[in-house]
Amino acid sequence: MARRQLTFSQQIEQSLLTEYRKAIWRPFMHAIRDYRLILPGDRIAVCISGGKDSMLLAKLIQILSRHTEVPFEAVYLVMDPGYNPANRRQIEENARRLEIPCTVFESDVFEVAEAQDEHPCFLCARMRRGCLYGKAQELGCNKIALGHHFNDVIETTVMAMLYGGQLQAMPPKLRARNFPGMELIRPLYRVHEQAIIDWMDAFGLEFIQCACRLTETAAKDESASRRRFVKSLLAQLNDEHPKVEQNVFNSIHRVQLNTMVGWKYRGEEHSFLDQYDDPPEA
Predict the structure, then answer these.
(1) What's the predicted TM-score (pTM) here?
(2) How many Å apart are CA 178 and CA 176, to the nearest integer?
(3) Element holding 185 (H helix, E strand)
(4) Beta-carbon neighbour count of residue 244 at 10 Å?
(5) What is the spatial distance between Cα 14 and Cα 21, in angstroms, rounded to a whole number?
(6) What is the pLDDT of residue 43?
(7) What local confidence, expressed as pLDDT, does residue 279 receive?
(8) Cα angle at 150 between 21 and 152, to 5 degrees?
(9) pLDDT along the chain (282 residues), means of 10
(10) Per-residue confidence (pLDDT) for residue 277, from 0 to 100
(11) pLDDT value for 125
(12) pLDDT score recorded for residue 1
């Protein structure tokens, strides 16, 4: 009997469960279990921007939905904030090749952000998030899933310390402030960006890099340049000391609160002096 030829999408799926099981599938599953990201009855809007991270996330969620013992539903959501036709076609073509059934909707996010003289990237990000929450809610979802990965987490942590003067991390999930009952989850939280790049290159996949119409403005945006610097700095430090990146990640899971001088919880500021005169522990 002739061996059945796998489709390109099936080859992708097989690779994620075999060759890239250790680097991608296992960290993905660990994040879902460790942080309780997916619960029975969830209906999740997997948000696809067209880049490598969100496309991989969509494929992983699709595989999981077929084999999990935890019943949940997923819809695959593409918001077109004003892409040029070439980028829109590439997103749709990649979704077709990966056999991901996408729901596409349009918005005027780029147009509105382009009219702003200062911090258009910040405004764009907030508007995109709000549009995704709104559409997901309209589709009966209680969660949106974004493609932030391990390196996004540690870069954000270091940026907050160096440029924001605070110890602040990117949590694996959080409740939406303006959309009651909605949550944001980050299932790629433990997946390293290099593993995603290796997987993409192995299959000759080409995803959009930056589809923003404001690229020139974004290049001048201070936060964008700071992130590039921090990414480069962490890579250099990790070359010299291979555990640096993992240690940054571990540190946000092992905060020694009794050594902190001050902290904020749910908007309320606290000081170590509040408990300083308490009797020491035995």
Answers:
(1) 0.90
(2) 6
(3) strand 183-185
(4) 17
(5) 9
(6) 98
(7) 78
(8) 145
(9) 79 97 98 98 96 97 94 94 87 96 82 62 74 93 98 97 94 94 97 98 89 52 82 95 96 94 93 86 62
(10) 83
(11) 75
(12) 47
Q: Which residue has the tokens 């996004």?
A: 152
User: Going by DSSP bridges, is the β-strand pair 143-145/102-106 parallel, antiparallel, or unpaired?
Assistant: unpaired
Give the model's pLDDT for residue 3.
59
Pairing of strands 173-175, 183-185: antiparallel
Closest CA relative to residue 246, chosen from 27, 26, 29: 27
pLDDT of residue 216: 44
Query: What distance in Å separates the CA atoms of residue 12 and residue 16, rounded to the nearest whole number?
Result: 6
Pairing verdict, β 73-80 and 102-106: parallel
Other CB atoms within 10 Å distance of the CB of residue 83: 21
158 three-state secondary structure: helix
Distance separating alpha carbons of residues 65 and 258, to the nearest angstrom: 42
Segment holding 46, helix H or strand E: strand 43-48
Measured CA to CA in angstroms, residue 179 lies from 46, 64, 124, 130, 171 at distances of: 17, 26, 18, 9, 18
Please tell me the predicted confidence (pLDDT) of residue 197. 97
Rounded Cα distance between 227 and 160, Å, is: 10
> How many residues in total does the chain contain?
282
pLDDT of residue 93: 95
Residue type, 227: R
CA–CA distance, 114 with 110 (Å, rounded to integer) = 6
Rounded to 5 degrees, what angle do the CA atoms 238, 156, 262 make? 105
Q: Tell me the C-alpha distance between 85 and 77, whole Å.
A: 18
Helix (H) or strand (E) holding 262: strand 262-265
Which residue's entry shows tokens 């996408």? 102
If you search the block for the tokens 């005027």, which residue do you land on? 108
Q: How far apart are CA 28 and CA 57, in angstroms?
A: 9
